[in-house]
Amino acid sequence: MESAFSDTILRWFDANARVLPWRLPVPRNDRLSFDRAVRARFPDFTKDHPISIRRDPYTVVVSEFMLQQTQVTAVIPYYERFMARFPTMNDLASALQTDVLKAWEGLGYYRRARFLHAFGMRVSSDYDGIIPPLKKELMALPGIGEYTAGAVLSFAYDQPEPAVDGNIVRIVSRFDAVPHVRGSAKALRTVRKRICELMPTDGRAGDFNEALMDLGAMVCTPSSPQCEHCPLQQMCQAYAADAVGRFPVRPGAEDKPVTSFSYVLLHVHGSVYVQRRPKGLLEGLFEFFSLPEPFGPDNPAGFRESLCRHLRRRGVYDAPESAGIRFIDKRRAVYSHRIWDVFLWEAELSSVIPAVRDGDPEGACWVRAEKLHDLP
Q1: In this structure, what DSSP letter does residue 345 have?
Q2: Which parts of the chain are beta strand (E)?
Q3: Annotated catalytic residue: which of 2, 64, 210, 287?
Q4: Distance between alpha carbon 240 and the CA centroid of its chain, in Å?
Q5: Rounded-to-integer distance, Cα 317 and Cα 256, Å
Q6: Whole-angstrom Cα distance, residue 227 to residue 310?
Q7: pLDDT tens figures, 138-192
Q8: Whole-prediction pTM value?
Q9: What residues contact residue 302 under an 8 Å CB cut-off, 6+ apart?
Q10: Chain centre distance of CA 302
Q11: What residues contact residue 351 under an 8 Å CB cut-off, 6+ apart?
Q12: Nearest to residue 163, comparing CAs of 220, 209, 221, 219?
Protein backbone atom coordinates (compact mmCIF):
# COMPACT_ATOMS: atom_id res chain seq x y z
CA MET A 1 0.00 0.00 0.00
CA GLU A 2 2.79 2.43 0.94
CA SER A 3 4.67 2.13 -2.36
CA ALA A 4 1.42 2.25 -4.34
CA PHE A 5 0.48 5.49 -2.57
CA SER A 6 3.80 7.22 -3.25
CA ASP A 7 4.09 5.94 -6.84
CA THR A 8 0.55 7.10 -7.63
CA ILE A 9 0.90 10.53 -6.09
CA LEU A 10 4.24 11.15 -7.80
CA ARG A 11 2.89 10.18 -11.24
CA TRP A 12 0.00 12.57 -10.68
CA PHE A 13 2.40 15.32 -9.57
CA ASP A 14 4.58 14.91 -12.67
CA ALA A 15 1.55 15.70 -14.82
CA ASN A 16 -0.26 18.24 -12.62
CA ALA A 17 2.23 20.16 -10.46
CA ARG A 18 1.35 23.79 -9.90
CA VAL A 19 3.70 26.36 -11.42
CA LEU A 20 4.63 28.68 -8.54
CA PRO A 21 7.32 31.39 -8.39
CA TRP A 22 9.08 29.78 -5.41
CA ARG A 23 9.36 26.43 -7.20
CA LEU A 24 11.88 27.55 -9.78
CA PRO A 25 14.75 25.07 -10.20
CA VAL A 26 18.20 26.16 -9.09
CA PRO A 27 20.52 26.60 -12.13
CA ARG A 28 23.19 23.91 -12.35
CA ASN A 29 26.14 26.21 -11.66
CA ASP A 30 24.38 27.78 -8.69
CA ARG A 31 23.40 24.33 -7.45
CA LEU A 32 27.02 23.14 -7.52
CA SER A 33 28.21 26.28 -5.73
CA PHE A 34 25.47 25.94 -3.16
CA ASP A 35 26.29 22.26 -2.64
CA ARG A 36 29.95 23.11 -1.98
CA ALA A 37 29.00 25.90 0.44
CA VAL A 38 26.66 23.62 2.41
CA ARG A 39 29.26 20.86 2.62
CA ALA A 40 31.94 23.31 3.73
CA ARG A 41 29.70 24.82 6.42
CA PHE A 42 28.31 21.49 7.74
CA PRO A 43 31.07 18.93 7.06
CA ASP A 44 30.21 16.56 9.94
CA PHE A 45 26.59 16.25 8.80
CA THR A 46 27.10 16.08 5.05
CA LYS A 47 29.79 13.39 5.18
CA ASP A 48 27.18 10.95 6.53
CA HIS A 49 24.06 12.34 4.81
CA PRO A 50 23.55 12.85 1.07
CA ILE A 51 22.64 16.45 0.20
CA SER A 52 20.70 17.34 -2.92
CA ILE A 53 19.97 21.02 -3.58
CA ARG A 54 16.45 20.83 -4.97
CA ARG A 55 15.26 24.42 -4.42
CA ASP A 56 16.94 27.57 -3.14
CA PRO A 57 16.41 27.24 0.65
CA TYR A 58 15.91 31.00 1.01
CA THR A 59 12.98 31.02 -1.42
CA VAL A 60 11.49 28.05 0.43
CA VAL A 61 11.72 29.84 3.76
CA VAL A 62 10.23 33.12 2.49
CA SER A 63 7.34 31.36 0.73
CA GLU A 64 6.57 29.09 3.67
CA PHE A 65 6.47 31.98 6.15
CA MET A 66 4.10 33.81 3.81
CA LEU A 67 1.90 30.78 3.17
CA GLN A 68 1.12 30.24 6.84
CA GLN A 69 -2.65 30.82 7.13
CA THR A 70 -2.70 32.57 3.73
CA GLN A 71 -3.84 31.26 0.35
CA VAL A 72 -1.38 30.79 -2.51
CA THR A 73 -3.13 33.23 -4.83
CA ALA A 74 -2.91 35.97 -2.20
CA VAL A 75 0.76 35.25 -1.48
CA ILE A 76 2.16 35.30 -5.03
CA PRO A 77 2.24 39.09 -5.63
CA TYR A 78 3.59 39.74 -2.12
CA TYR A 79 6.26 37.07 -2.57
CA GLU A 80 7.40 38.55 -5.88
CA ARG A 81 7.62 42.08 -4.45
CA PHE A 82 9.38 40.86 -1.31
CA MET A 83 11.98 38.90 -3.28
CA ALA A 84 12.61 41.89 -5.53
CA ARG A 85 13.23 43.99 -2.40
CA PHE A 86 15.24 41.34 -0.49
CA PRO A 87 16.64 38.91 -3.10
CA THR A 88 19.11 37.16 -0.76
CA MET A 89 19.38 36.12 2.85
CA ASN A 90 22.02 38.79 3.44
CA ASP A 91 19.74 41.48 1.99
CA LEU A 92 17.04 40.44 4.45
CA ALA A 93 19.44 40.20 7.39
CA SER A 94 20.87 43.68 6.82
CA ALA A 95 17.46 45.36 6.43
CA LEU A 96 15.67 47.37 9.10
CA GLN A 97 12.64 45.69 10.62
CA THR A 98 10.54 48.68 9.57
CA ASP A 99 11.47 48.03 5.92
CA VAL A 100 10.62 44.33 6.24
CA LEU A 101 7.25 45.14 7.78
CA LYS A 102 6.57 47.68 5.03
CA ALA A 103 7.30 45.05 2.35
CA TRP A 104 4.91 42.72 4.19
CA GLU A 105 2.20 45.35 4.56
CA GLY A 106 -1.25 44.04 3.64
CA LEU A 107 -0.38 40.34 3.92
CA GLY A 108 -1.38 40.20 7.58
CA TYR A 109 -0.15 38.08 10.48
CA TYR A 110 2.83 40.43 10.89
CA ARG A 111 4.43 38.25 13.52
CA ARG A 112 5.57 36.12 10.58
CA ALA A 113 7.48 39.07 9.12
CA ARG A 114 9.24 39.76 12.41
CA PHE A 115 10.17 36.09 12.78
CA LEU A 116 11.40 35.95 9.17
CA HIS A 117 13.61 38.98 9.74
CA ALA A 118 14.98 37.51 12.99
CA PHE A 119 15.53 34.18 11.17
CA GLY A 120 17.53 35.94 8.46
CA MET A 121 19.73 37.76 10.96
CA ARG A 122 20.45 34.55 12.88
CA VAL A 123 21.27 32.53 9.77
CA SER A 124 23.51 35.32 8.51
CA SER A 125 25.38 35.72 11.80
CA ASP A 126 25.52 32.07 12.95
CA TYR A 127 25.68 30.12 9.68
CA ASP A 128 27.27 32.51 7.18
CA GLY A 129 23.95 32.85 5.39
CA ILE A 130 23.58 29.09 4.77
CA ILE A 131 20.27 27.69 6.02
CA PRO A 132 21.11 24.55 8.05
CA PRO A 133 20.15 21.16 6.56
CA LEU A 134 19.80 19.79 10.11
CA LYS A 135 16.38 19.61 11.75
CA LYS A 136 17.62 20.26 15.30
CA GLU A 137 19.47 23.41 14.30
CA LEU A 138 16.65 24.60 12.07
CA MET A 139 14.09 24.31 14.85
CA ALA A 140 16.26 26.42 17.15
CA LEU A 141 15.86 29.37 14.75
CA PRO A 142 13.10 32.01 15.05
CA GLY A 143 9.73 31.08 13.58
CA ILE A 144 10.62 27.48 12.70
CA GLY A 145 8.35 24.68 13.87
CA GLU A 146 7.86 21.06 12.83
CA TYR A 147 6.08 21.91 9.60
CA THR A 148 8.44 24.63 8.34
CA ALA A 149 11.48 22.53 9.24
CA GLY A 150 10.04 19.64 7.24
CA ALA A 151 9.27 21.94 4.31
CA VAL A 152 12.81 23.36 4.22
CA LEU A 153 14.49 19.96 4.58
CA SER A 154 12.35 18.26 1.93
CA PHE A 155 11.60 21.08 -0.54
CA ALA A 156 15.11 22.57 -0.49
CA TYR A 157 17.38 19.65 0.43
CA ASP A 158 15.19 16.69 -0.67
CA GLN A 159 15.53 15.01 2.71
CA PRO A 160 12.86 12.43 3.70
CA GLU A 161 11.21 14.64 6.29
CA PRO A 162 7.40 15.06 6.48
CA ALA A 163 5.86 18.52 6.13
CA VAL A 164 2.39 18.13 7.61
CA ASP A 165 -0.19 20.90 7.61
CA GLY A 166 -3.99 20.96 7.47
CA ASN A 167 -4.01 19.86 3.82
CA ILE A 168 -2.06 16.72 4.64
CA VAL A 169 -4.16 15.92 7.71
CA ARG A 170 -7.26 16.10 5.50
CA ILE A 171 -5.83 13.79 2.82
CA VAL A 172 -4.62 11.18 5.30
CA SER A 173 -7.82 11.36 7.35
CA ARG A 174 -9.87 10.59 4.24
CA PHE A 175 -7.42 8.07 2.80
CA ASP A 176 -7.44 6.00 5.99
CA ALA A 177 -10.99 6.98 7.08
CA VAL A 178 -9.64 8.01 10.47
CA PRO A 179 -11.49 10.89 12.21
CA HIS A 180 -8.53 13.15 12.89
CA VAL A 181 -9.56 16.46 14.45
CA ARG A 182 -8.56 19.42 12.31
CA GLY A 183 -5.91 21.57 13.92
CA SER A 184 -5.24 19.29 16.87
CA ALA A 185 -1.66 18.56 17.97
CA LYS A 186 -2.49 14.87 18.27
CA ALA A 187 -3.67 14.73 14.66
CA LEU A 188 -0.47 16.41 13.46
CA ARG A 189 1.71 13.95 15.38
CA THR A 190 -0.24 10.92 14.14
CA VAL A 191 -0.32 12.07 10.52
CA ARG A 192 3.38 12.96 10.60
CA LYS A 193 4.14 9.37 11.58
CA ARG A 194 1.80 8.07 8.85
CA ILE A 195 3.47 10.21 6.18
CA CYS A 196 6.84 8.76 7.17
CA GLU A 197 5.36 5.32 6.38
CA LEU A 198 3.97 6.45 3.02
CA MET A 199 6.99 8.45 1.87
CA PRO A 200 9.10 6.92 -0.94
CA THR A 201 12.34 5.37 0.24
CA ASP A 202 14.30 5.90 -2.98
CA GLY A 203 14.34 9.70 -3.17
CA ARG A 204 11.92 12.43 -4.35
CA ALA A 205 10.87 13.36 -0.82
CA GLY A 206 10.43 16.98 -1.89
CA ASP A 207 8.28 16.02 -4.86
CA PHE A 208 6.21 13.75 -2.61
CA ASN A 209 5.48 16.50 -0.08
CA GLU A 210 4.73 19.06 -2.78
CA ALA A 211 2.46 16.53 -4.49
CA LEU A 212 0.42 16.18 -1.32
CA MET A 213 0.20 19.97 -0.99
CA ASP A 214 -1.06 20.28 -4.55
CA LEU A 215 -3.53 17.43 -4.14
CA GLY A 216 -4.98 19.07 -1.04
CA ALA A 217 -5.22 22.46 -2.77
CA MET A 218 -6.57 21.27 -6.13
CA VAL A 219 -8.48 18.02 -5.58
CA CYS A 220 -8.92 16.87 -1.96
CA THR A 221 -10.29 20.25 -0.90
CA PRO A 222 -12.09 20.98 2.40
CA SER A 223 -15.46 21.31 0.69
CA SER A 224 -16.65 19.88 -2.63
CA PRO A 225 -13.61 17.61 -3.13
CA GLN A 226 -13.05 16.50 -6.74
CA CYS A 227 -13.01 12.77 -5.96
CA GLU A 228 -13.64 11.85 -9.59
CA HIS A 229 -10.27 13.38 -10.49
CA CYS A 230 -8.33 12.07 -7.50
CA PRO A 231 -5.44 9.71 -8.27
CA LEU A 232 -5.96 8.03 -4.87
CA GLN A 233 -9.65 7.34 -5.40
CA GLN A 234 -9.34 3.55 -5.67
CA MET A 235 -7.32 3.38 -2.44
CA CYS A 236 -9.30 5.93 -0.42
CA GLN A 237 -11.21 4.38 2.48
CA ALA A 238 -13.51 7.35 2.98
CA TYR A 239 -14.46 7.32 -0.71
CA ALA A 240 -15.17 3.58 -0.56
CA ALA A 241 -17.51 4.19 2.37
CA ASP A 242 -19.15 7.19 0.63
CA ALA A 243 -18.14 9.27 3.65
CA VAL A 244 -15.54 11.72 2.38
CA GLY A 245 -17.41 14.66 3.92
CA ARG A 246 -17.07 13.18 7.40
CA PHE A 247 -13.28 13.45 7.44
CA PRO A 248 -11.49 15.15 9.08
CA VAL A 249 -13.58 16.10 12.11
CA ARG A 250 -14.36 19.74 12.69
CA PRO A 251 -13.27 20.98 16.15
CA GLY A 252 -15.78 22.61 18.48
CA ALA A 253 -16.27 26.28 17.72
CA GLU A 254 -15.04 28.81 20.29
CA ASP A 255 -16.25 32.38 20.60
CA LYS A 256 -13.61 34.96 19.77
CA PRO A 257 -12.95 37.62 22.40
CA VAL A 258 -14.01 41.14 21.37
CA THR A 259 -11.95 44.22 22.24
CA SER A 260 -13.50 47.68 21.82
CA PHE A 261 -11.48 50.91 21.75
CA SER A 262 -11.09 54.21 19.88
CA TYR A 263 -8.55 55.31 17.29
CA VAL A 264 -7.92 59.03 16.83
CA LEU A 265 -6.58 60.67 13.69
CA LEU A 266 -4.66 63.28 15.67
CA HIS A 267 -3.20 66.01 13.47
CA VAL A 268 -1.90 69.57 13.53
CA HIS A 269 -0.56 71.79 10.75
CA GLY A 270 -0.39 68.86 8.28
CA SER A 271 1.39 66.43 10.64
CA VAL A 272 -0.16 63.26 12.05
CA TYR A 273 0.64 61.53 15.35
CA VAL A 274 1.59 57.84 15.07
CA GLN A 275 3.08 55.27 17.43
CA ARG A 276 4.39 51.72 17.20
CA ARG A 277 2.22 48.93 18.55
CA PRO A 278 3.80 47.08 21.48
CA LYS A 279 4.00 43.31 21.82
CA GLY A 280 0.96 41.36 20.70
CA LEU A 281 -1.26 41.60 17.65
CA LEU A 282 0.32 43.69 14.84
CA GLU A 283 3.43 44.25 16.95
CA GLY A 284 5.90 46.69 15.43
CA LEU A 285 3.45 48.31 13.02
CA PHE A 286 2.51 51.96 13.36
CA GLU A 287 -0.95 52.97 14.52
CA PHE A 288 -2.80 56.19 15.25
CA PHE A 289 -3.31 57.60 18.72
CA SER A 290 -5.58 55.25 20.65
CA LEU A 291 -7.89 55.45 23.65
CA PRO A 292 -8.75 52.30 25.62
CA GLU A 293 -12.44 53.25 25.80
CA PRO A 294 -14.95 52.90 22.93
CA PHE A 295 -16.70 56.22 22.26
CA GLY A 296 -19.64 56.39 19.88
CA PRO A 297 -21.04 59.49 18.15
CA ASP A 298 -23.51 59.99 21.00
CA ASN A 299 -20.74 60.69 23.54
CA PRO A 300 -18.49 63.49 22.22
CA ALA A 301 -18.10 64.93 25.73
CA GLY A 302 -16.77 61.63 27.09
CA PHE A 303 -14.44 61.30 24.11
CA ARG A 304 -13.06 64.83 24.55
CA GLU A 305 -12.49 64.32 28.30
CA SER A 306 -10.64 61.03 27.74
CA LEU A 307 -8.61 62.48 24.85
CA CYS A 308 -7.53 65.48 26.92
CA ARG A 309 -6.55 63.26 29.85
CA HIS A 310 -4.43 60.92 27.72
CA LEU A 311 -2.83 63.75 25.75
CA ARG A 312 -1.78 65.50 28.95
CA ARG A 313 -0.40 62.21 30.25
CA ARG A 314 1.80 61.95 27.17
CA GLY A 315 2.64 65.65 27.13
CA VAL A 316 1.57 65.85 23.51
CA TYR A 317 0.11 69.39 23.46
CA ASP A 318 -0.67 72.27 25.75
CA ALA A 319 -4.28 73.28 25.05
CA PRO A 320 -6.31 70.06 24.77
CA GLU A 321 -9.64 71.81 25.16
CA SER A 322 -9.00 73.62 21.87
CA ALA A 323 -9.07 70.42 19.83
CA GLY A 324 -11.67 70.25 17.07
CA ILE A 325 -13.18 66.74 17.13
CA ARG A 326 -15.33 64.72 14.74
CA PHE A 327 -16.67 61.16 14.86
CA ILE A 328 -15.84 59.30 11.63
CA ASP A 329 -17.12 55.72 11.76
CA LYS A 330 -17.17 52.39 13.56
CA ARG A 331 -15.43 49.38 12.02
CA ARG A 332 -15.01 45.72 12.98
CA ALA A 333 -11.70 43.93 12.30
CA VAL A 334 -11.91 40.14 12.53
CA TYR A 335 -8.63 38.30 13.16
CA SER A 336 -7.98 34.58 13.55
CA HIS A 337 -8.39 34.53 17.34
CA ARG A 338 -9.99 37.84 18.26
CA ILE A 339 -12.20 40.69 17.09
CA TRP A 340 -11.64 44.44 17.31
CA ASP A 341 -14.54 46.89 17.39
CA VAL A 342 -12.88 50.22 16.58
CA PHE A 343 -14.50 53.63 16.97
CA LEU A 344 -12.79 56.14 14.69
CA TRP A 345 -12.42 59.84 15.53
CA GLU A 346 -10.56 62.84 14.14
CA ALA A 347 -9.04 65.52 16.36
CA GLU A 348 -7.36 68.62 14.94
CA LEU A 349 -5.10 70.41 17.39
CA SER A 350 -4.22 74.09 17.39
CA SER A 351 -0.77 73.75 18.98
CA VAL A 352 1.70 71.08 19.98
CA ILE A 353 4.42 70.69 22.57
CA PRO A 354 7.32 68.93 20.81
CA ALA A 355 7.53 66.31 23.58
CA VAL A 356 7.91 63.33 21.27
CA ARG A 357 11.59 62.75 20.59
CA ASP A 358 13.72 60.18 18.80
CA GLY A 359 14.12 57.12 20.98
CA ASP A 360 10.62 57.33 22.43
CA PRO A 361 9.93 53.88 23.96
CA GLU A 362 6.60 53.67 22.16
CA GLY A 363 8.08 54.72 18.83
CA ALA A 364 5.77 57.74 18.78
CA CYS A 365 6.36 60.55 16.30
CA TRP A 366 4.72 63.22 14.19
CA VAL A 367 4.89 62.62 10.44
CA ARG A 368 3.69 64.65 7.51
CA ALA A 369 0.39 63.28 6.25
CA GLU A 370 1.83 62.64 2.78
CA LYS A 371 4.55 60.44 4.35
CA LEU A 372 2.16 58.04 6.12
CA HIS A 373 2.36 55.61 3.20
CA ASP A 374 6.08 55.13 3.89
CA LEU A 375 5.37 53.52 7.27
CA PRO A 376 4.23 49.93 7.82
Answers
A1: E
A2: 258-268, 271-276, 286-291, 324-334, 339-348, 365-368
A3: 64
A4: 36
A5: 37
A6: 59
A7: 999 999 999 999 999 999 999 999 999 999 999 999 999 999 999 899 999 999 9
A8: 0.80
A9: 293, 295
A10: 39
A11: 268, 317, 318, 319, 322
A12: 209
Look up 2 and say whether it is catalytic. no
What distance in Å separates the CA atoms of residue 52 and residue 81, rounded to the nearest whole number?
28
| Angstrom distance (rounded) from CA 14 to CA 3 | 16
**Which is nearest to 159 in space by CA: 144, 175, 138?**
138
Structure letter (DSSP) for residue 55: S
Q: In whole angstroms, give the CA distance from residue 231 to residue 12.
A: 7
Position 362, amino acid? E
The answer to whether the CB of 173 falls within 8 A of the CB of 247 is yes
Alpha carbons within 13 A on the beta-carbon side of 141: 30
* Alpha carbon distance 323, 344 (integer Å): 16
DSSP annotation of 346 reads E
Helix or strand run (H / E) with residue 37: helix 28-41
Residue 336, burial from CB neighbour count under 10 angstroms (0-12, 13-18, 19+): exposed
pLDDT in tens, 43-95: 988 888 887 899 999 999 999 999 998 999 999 999 999 999 999 999 999 99
